[in-house]
Write a structure and sequence with these properties.
There is one protein chain. The longest helix is centred in the middle third of the chain and has 18 residues, at 113-130. The protein is an alpha+beta fold. The chain has two domains: 2-63, ATP-grasp fold, A domain (Dna Ligase, domain 1); 68-222, D-amino Acid Aminotransferase, Chain A, domain 1 (2-Layer Sandwich), CATH 3.30.470. Helices cover 25% and strands 26% of the residues.
């Protein structure tokens, strides 16, 4: 990936060079896919970059990776479960996230058991690398091959009725009130000590998939700089 600011627009074609298409463009500091979009040509890239710059002074341009979108919810670094998102549009944009009926969700994610466990492990590793605590969500792309790509670690995951963290927590046996209590009990202020030790849900959703496919290894993890 590479980053751009408004002063780089005049040299956009030179900067992009042989990076290729398609690419995905998004504001460097934003959320809910606001200002994000796919570009398949230089003209579209210029348009998407200008749009993203409306929301931030810096823009990220990433290679587009085709794969299934999966999100893992964690509490103090311990994975609660993984959900698969199937948006009806081109990608999981703002409309797909917050308008009812614009996306389908599969909990647990439709992965072979071994790969499902591997995705949870990758999410936990990503949290460990960044030293995050409390409630977090790791977004990944799961490809048809044997690669999983970590897109980002969300330290302020959504808490609306359509948000992914509450959906996963509910599948684990926590209603919204339980989830809020767990988050508050682990809250810290300038200290690593929380009021309650980390624990997982009493019942975690089992992985699904064909046992004959469950031996597919995970060979690499794509971790990008924040």
């Amino acid at each position: 990936y590479y980053t751009l600011s408004e002063r780089d627009l005049e040299d956009l074609e030179e900067t992009h060079g042989s990076f290729g298409f398609p690419v995905f463009v998004k504001p460097r500091r934003s959320g809910s896919s606001v200002g994000a979009g796919r570009a398949d040509s230089m003209a579209e890239l210029a348009e998407k970059v200008e749009d993203a710059l409306r929301f931030d002074s810096s823009v990220i341009v990433e290679r587009f990776i085709r794969g299934r979108e999966v999100a893992v919810a964690l509490m103090d670094g311990k994975a609660l479960g993984a959900i698969e998102i199937s948006p009806k549009g081109n990608f999981y944009d703002y409309k797909s996230k917050y308008q009812s009926g614009q996306s389908e969700y599969h909990l647990p994610a439709r992965l072979p058991p071994t790969r499902y466990k591997g995705v949870l492990h990758i999410a936990e590793r990503a949290n460990q690398c960044l030293g995050t605590t409390g409630a977090t969500r790791v977004d990944l792309l799961v490809t048809e091959g044997e690669n999983e790509y970590v897109l980002e670690v969300n330290t302020l995951p959504g808490m609306t009725p359509t948000s992914l963290l509450p959906k996963i927590a509910k599948g684990c046996g926590w209603d919204f009130a339980d989830l809020c209590e767990e988050i508050l009990a682990r809250a810290t202020v300038g200290t690593r000590s929380s009021l309650r030790p980390a624990r997982g849900p009493s019942t975690a959703p089992p992985p699904v998939g064909d046992d004959e496919q469950s031996t597919a290894p995970i060979t690499s993890v794509g971790l990008e700089a924040p």
